[in-house]
Amino acid sequence: MTEPGNGRRVLQRAAVGLLLALSAGCRAEPPDGITVLVESPPDSLDDRFALTAIGQRIAQLLAPGLITFDDTSRPVPALAESFRALSPTVMEFTLRPGLTFHDGTALTAEDVKATYDGVRARALQSPRADRYEPIEQVEVVNDLTVRFHLRRPYTPLLAELSLSIVPAERAGPDGVALQAAHPVGAGAFRFESQPDEEHLTLVPFEGYYEGPPAIPRLYFRVVRDETTRVLELLKGRADLVTNAVSPAVLPLLRKEPGLRVLVKPGTGYAYLGFNLRSGPLADVRVRRAVCHLLDVKPVVEHKLHGLAEPATGMLPTTHWAYAPEPGCRYDPAEASRLLDEAGYPDPDGPGGQPRLTLSLKVSTDRFRKSVALVLQEQLARGGIAVEVRALEFGTLFNDIRRGNFEMVTLKWASVIEPDLMRGAYDSKNVPTAENHWGGLNRGALRDSELDALLEKASQVEPSERKALYTAAQERLDALLPYAPLWHESSVAVVSRRLEGFEPSAHGFLSSLAHARRVAP
Fold first, then answer.
1. Calpha distance 416→58 (Å, rounded)
2. Does position 368 have pLDDT exceeding 90, yes or no?
3. Position 48 in a domain
4. Is 288 exposed, middle or buried (0-12, 13-18, 19+ CB in 10 A)?
5. How far apart are CA 194 and CA 241, in angstroms?
6. Taking residues 8-35, what's their average pLDDT?
7. Contacts by residues 196-205 (CB-CB < 8 Å, ≥ 24 positions apart)
8. Contact call for residues 215 and 512 (beta carbons, < 8 A)
9. CA dist., res. 447 & res. 479, Å (int)
10. What secondary structure letter does DSSP report for 398?
């Protein structure tokens, strides 16, 4: 693969070398705990209102839910000791005995009911309220047992039952301000202080059901600039950065004796999205031709330094619902045939005028822009000229929601529940003024066969879901609303002071509960 910007790559290496030189001799011990650097402040420490990944991940350290998810995206118990389906519309959860909140009060089924009754109430104005529409009633059977009665069979609800459980007196609108100022849950860590939006301190909870964490204090610090994050790691002033360091920097960080780079296959999904509303990309033959011109493997090797797996669809190979599909193998000859068939013949032979011109919108993130330039070069070799437009993310996101794009590169941060396919591809979820441009089917795919498969998959018994999602993935492979690119690995840069931390496929921080601080 020919990469544009070889000079840029040399400069990048020089810059990293300078960072290493600057860090030498100026190492500093962090405070009496572990320091975690994050790219942006959490939008909320209350899981009922958090929309950003970092907000949700810190909220789960403070206040876990009934269940969580393992790296294969299967539900596993958290505050619940066990759970079972009593019928297609009744789910029962049994709490662990002896659970307490950070304030010392007992956590019972009444708190679970109050949490879910509260988040479903419009008065609370939680952005997650609509996800719980299938719940008709939450029933307290006894102190340790709670049942969810559904209006209709809805298996994906399990994915929403990881919501943080809060004390009953904080579950309604009157408790929102108190929970925001000083959050209380039953998690491994409890809130100590947040002097400003860029600093947060948590301490171990002695009453945590798995035992108190060994980390004496957990400091979160916001560092928006990647160069500064790298310097803080090199200087010994930080202990953990997850998924916030460019792949090109990692080989050099691996050489640092005070740092380790831990990698796990991830569930994030990078893709090239198409606008199916009009123009050349409304023709599946053009979409497939674009896909056949993309050579993903060298991009993964050179741009992502092997820290990703080429994708054939939304679900990674480790996911329980994954089905192997052909995807778009690199095949320029087939791309040429499809473009001819679609009415875009080569006007003057290889290297001359393009067959057609498309636009590609990306964020201003340097790494994402550099990937877009590689895709641009690959498509140009097949006769498709691409105009790359880099936009500030807010502007980019607004354009995507309103259908103001031809192609766009984006990624889902993590894919846990396969019902995400229904959100992303169902005809009812096309963004419109009527739904305040909130639909996730931003490319405007409309296919009744796929709609029916995904709707049925949300209503059947868990044992029947995989076959339906296999059929849905086959249909998506034929329709190609996205060109699959890759599943990026989950990467953590960890100091030698932090032992026992394991990266999560989903980017969760929950293993901090089992990690410890050691002398360097």
1. 18
2. no
3. no
4. buried
5. 20
6. 57
7. 197/41, 197/222, 198/41, 198/222, 200/42, 200/45, 200/58, 202/61, 202/62, 205/102
8. yes
9. 9
10. H
What CATH number corresponds to the domain at position 38? 3.40.190.10
- Please tell me what DSSP assigns to residue 124: G
Question: Which SS3 state, helix, strand or coil, does residue 199 take?
Answer: strand
Give CA torsion, residues 184, 188, 193, 197, to 10 deg: -90
- What whole-number distance in Å separates Cα of residue 259 and Cα of residue 256? 6
Q: Which helix (H) or strand (E) segment is 390 a member of?
A: strand 384-391
DSSP result, 344-383:
---SSSTTSS-SEEEEEEEES-HHHHHHHHHHHHHHHHTT
CA neighbours within 13 Å on the CB side: how many for 263?
16
Q: Which tokens belong to 387?
A: 């105009």
Strands (E), 143-182: 145-150
CA distance 363 to 411: 11
What are the tokens at 70? Answer: 């393992």
Q: CA distances (Å), 324 to each of 98, 217, 320, 472, in order?
A: 44, 44, 12, 12
Amino acid at 273: G
Same domain, 482 and 506: no
Residue 326 to residues 127, 292, 473, 478, 487, Cα–Cα distance (Å): 37, 11, 10, 10, 16
229 or 2, greater pLDDT:
229
Decide if pLDDT at 203 tops 80.
yes
Same domain as 223, residue 139? no
pTM of structure = 0.79
Q: Is residue 53 part of a domain?
A: no
